[in-house]
Write a structure and sequence with these properties.
Blueprint lengths: L3 E5 H13 L6 E7 L2 E8 L13 H13 L3 E9 L8 H6 L5 E8 L2 E10 L2 E4 L1 E5 L3
Parallel strand pairs: 1-8, 4-5
Antiparallel strand pairs: 2-3, 2-4, 5-6, 6-7
The structure holds zinc ion.
């Protein structure tokens, strides 16, 4: 599952705006879609309100899953930010990863936000590619 994630530049910019607005805290969210393709990005409140940790607010997360299911979509990815690095999943991310879906990690380099795609399964991290497509 999830060797690559397909998304639009608009999805990418929406995530970047979200993580940027939440500075200096970590921000997190879900990517709903189908067959590895993102259809919508859903920002979820980080209940930890921390610059180094995140935990999605459970009710908001539950509601997002309900909406996804109602729309015939599935979870294709999870994103969160590392305002102060690292540029890849942290040891905590690896230990706490619950879904074998694409993980987008947002980090800052030279004052700019960048994102990388990963998959965490069985405590093993693999990089995945991100394929940008034009919106329909
Ligand atoms: Zn993290």
């Amino acid at each position: 599952m999830a060797e690559k994630l397909i998304l639009t530049r608009k999805d990418w910019q929406r995530m970047r705006r979200h993580v940027s607005r939440r500075l200096p805290l970590e921000a997190c969210g879900l990517l709903a879609g189908k067959n590895g393709r993102v259809v919508s990005t859903i920002g979820i409140h980080n209940e930890e309100r921390s610059p180094v940790r995140f935990r999605m607010e459970p009710r908001a997360q539950w509601r997002a899953f309900q909406r996804m299911e109602a729309a015939g979509l599935e979870l294709v990815g999870i994103y969160h930010s590392h305002p102060n690095g690292p540029d890849r999943p942290s040891p905590t991310d690896i230990t706490e990863a619950m879904y074998p879906v694409a993980q987008i990690i947002w980090y800052r380099a030279d004052g700019k936000w960048r994102g990388g795609g990963f998959r965490i399964e069985g405590r093993k991290v693999t990089e995945i590619s991100l394929e940008f497509i034009q919106p329909e």
